[in-house]
From TrEMBL:
InterPro entries: DUF7654, DUF7657. This is 4-amino-4-deoxy-L-arabinose transferase. Residues 10-409 form the DUF7657 domain. The lineage of its organism: Bacteria, Bacillati, Actinomycetota, Actinomycetes, Micrococcales. The chain crosses the membrane at residues 119-138, 143-161, 167-184, 247-266, 325-342, 351-371, 391-410, 417-441, 453-469, 476-495. Pfam families: DUF7654, DUF7657. Keywords: Membrane, Transmembrane, Transmembrane helix. It comes from Cryobacterium levicorallinum. Residues 500-641 form the DUF7654 domain.
């Protein structure tokens, strides 16, 4: 038990220190050079990632807006309001926050420390969950397990998609797998109920995050792992009625969690229906077989992770987040896994069905990626609700599971894979990286400018595979840790607190006007106007919307002429142009609307404008105040009746 809790206890202490110091990885510092001159005093290391706009320009901005409004269940920025729970998962005060532990800090801390708490809780929980699962399978190698767990946390996909909706499904999956291991090996009834309680709670935590594309692959890995564990147990101990007693607590926990989630979804059915009825993403379905050679290279190209910091489309994907992946060390060890299965069969021992289950789920994911023509089964397994890039989460979880059982088996029988058997998977990995490097050198050499040491990381990764196969897990884990930290350690900046736009002169002027007489605003021009209005807590027609507000859009588009354009999960921004509002989509998740202060819409609905757009027609506007910012001039304008 001491070994099981050693690293989690240490992580609690680390988390307390980090939160107390306000240290986090938010990229809110992207705003700094837009509002201030000189270097950012709160940036300790790294650079803010503009690509990670879901974090700094959506979740963090909305979180501060919620704090400014008093953590309501309905955010009042948009006319008509927006539910704070779906899909933005904003801090608020209601019973569902009991299952959003990363948001607890907002109820008792200032914004700087609350953001740090929100940042670190799911991340440290991921390390703890990986450790608990791995040490349950490999109990005599806690140092090796700790290195693998930390390295897994620094996997590119987790760092580039560092949000609670990404991390909690992985935490749930690893904790569930650990609970299954203990359910079949522990004689303690109390232990099984404790594990069931933890898994049940995390089930609701994951489900209320409601990001299905990451939930589906995580659930499938656990299902295949559970079947493998069950068959292993039955083969070793023929059924005598005891199996149900072992898994009954987990089933009960799952039943209670399903009931709680169902109650929550029922209470939010109007919002859910509106969200599913959007043009984007709506009831999106992704058929199998959409993968190609570039997507394969992107999935296995972990040695080129540093090139993602270039933040532009390239060989590995449309952007850094979409191109992020894992070092699939367990999957590359498949030749060793097959050798283990063959060895067990030859010795007439029980086939290791847990390994078989993990292999099968990897095959399932690969089939979804590259094999078309089985849409019906894919929909039955809910794979159509994920995407090719999101399914990598499941492959990463399966990979870490395969690695755990390879190490466990080799330790159990004090075996080493033969030299050739160890060289083959290491060589295959190295060959895949050399191929990607060659293609990049010939077609996109700029990609290698920020990943000049890719050949070092490729060699170390291949060495890690070789060392694990040869039963030298300390060396293998050390190489794994070095590779992942080197690739993604500074993907997110090391930042003190959060860049709070409420501290700017612009925001203080906005709030002074609004406190005297609350009015409705619109931000015209750069995205900074949207962030300023949101964080100032005023009513505005800007922001990243969830289910569209009918009151808001009936004012903008009373004839519903642009319903397809605005009925979507997207950011709403405004540009200056004459006439009534015209709505367009620069991208699927962007809504651009034109603004004219003399239009009927503006005359009836808007009192103030925050603008950086110098083209704006001043005919129906008076200037209240102006601010010279490093890259633009920002003005507060008042809408006046047209003459």
């Amino acid at each position: 038990m001491r070994v099981l809790l050693a690293l989690p206890a240490l992580l609690v202490l680390v988390g307390i220190v980090l939160v107390a110091l306000g240290i986090n990885g938010s990229s809110s510092g992207v705003f700094h050079d837009q509002i201030s001159y000189g270097s950012d005093p709160d940036l300790i290391a790294g650079q803010p990632q503009a690509t990670r706009s879901d974090e700094w320009n959506v979740q963090t901005v909305w979180a501060i807006a919620q704090v400014e409004q008093g953590l309501p269940l309905t955010n009042e920025t948009f006319p008509g309001g927006m539910d704070a729970t779906l899909p933005q998962d904003l801090p608020r005060v209601d019973w569902t926050v009991a299952f959003r532990p990363h948001l607890w800090g907002f109820m008792v801390m200032d914004v700087d420390h609350a953001i740090a708490f929100k940042w670190w809780l799911p991340g440290l929980a991921l390390i703890a969950a990986a450790y608990v699962f791995l040490v349950s399978v490999i109990p005599r190698r806690p140092i090796v397990v700790a290195m693998i767990s930390v390295g897994f946390f620094f996997s590119p996909l987790f760092q580039w998609w560092y949000l609670s909706t990404t991390l909690w499904p992985a935490v749930w999956a690893l904790t569930s797998m650990a609970a299954l291991v203990w359910a079949f090996k522990s004689s303690s009834v109390a232990s099984r109920w404790i594990w069931a309680s933890i898994v049940g709670y995390l089930t609701v935590v994951m489900a209320t995050g409601i990001y299905v594309p990451f939930i589906v692959p995580a659930v499938l890995v656990v299902v295949f792992f559970a079947v493998g564990q069950l068959v292993d147990h039955l083969r070793q101990r023929p059924f005598r009625g005891g199996v149900f007693k072992r898994i009954a607590p987990l089933l009960a926990g799952g039943l209670v969690a399903s009931a709680v989630t169902g109650l929550w979804l029922y209470s939010k059915r109007t919002v859910v229906d509106a969200f599913l009825g959007t043009a984007y993403p709506g009831d999106r379905s992704s058929p199998p077989g959409m993968g190609d050679l570039p997507s394969f290279m992107s999935a296995v190209g972990s040695s080129f992770t540093q090139s993602l910091n270039d933040q532009r489309a390239g060989l590995l994907g449309a952007n850094s987040s979409e191109a992020s992946t894992f070092f699939y060390i367990g999957i590359f060890l498949l030749p060793v896994v097959i050798w283990i299965i063959a060895r067990e069969m030859k010795a007439k021992r029980s086939v290791p069905w847990t390994l078989v289950g993990l292999i099968l789920v990897v095959v399932l994911f690969l089939a979804y990626l590259f094999l078309p023509g089985w849409d019906g089964l894919s929909k039955l397994l809910l794979l159509d609700k994920t995407t090719g890039n999101r399914v990598r989460l499941g492959m990463g979880l399966a990979s870490i599971g395969l690695l755990a059982y390879v190490v466990s088996y080799l330790d159990k029988y004090r075996l080493r894979a033969g030299w050739w058997l160890a060289i083959i998977p290491a060589g295959l990995f190295l060959a895949s990286q050399l191929l990607i490097g060659y293609v990049a050198l010939r077609g996109l050499p700029a990609m290698l400018e920020t990943a000049q040491l890719w050949w070092v990381w490729a060699t170390l990764s291949a060495a890690s595979i070789f060392f694990f196969a040869r039963r030298q897990p300390r060396l293998g884990a050390a190489a794994f840790l070095i590779v992942t930290v080197a690739g993604s350690g500074l993907t997110n900046p090391v930042y003190r607190g959060v860049l709070d736009l409420r501290e700017t002169d612009v925001s203080q002027a906005i709030r002074a006007i609004d406190e005297a007489n609350p009015q409705t605003w619109v931000g015209v021009g750069s995205g900074l106007t949207t962030a300023m209005l949101l964080e100032s807590g005023v009513r505005a027609y800007n922001g990243f919307q969830g289910a569209p507000s009918q009151q808001m859009w009936s004012a903008i588009d009373p004839a519903d002429a642009y319903e397809f354009e605005w009925n979507r999960l997207a950011g709403v921004s405004w540009t200056a142009a004459p006439g009534e509002p015209v709505v367009s989509n620069p991208a699927a998740d962007q809504i651009s609307v034109t603004f004219d202060a003399c239009s009927q819409f503006a005359q009836e609905n808007i009192q103030y404008v925050l603008s950086t757009d110098q083209r704006i027609d001043q005919a129906c506007l008076t200037t209240e105040s102006g601010f010279n910012l490093p890259k633009t001039q920002m003005s507060i304008l008042k809408v006046v009746p047209r003459s």
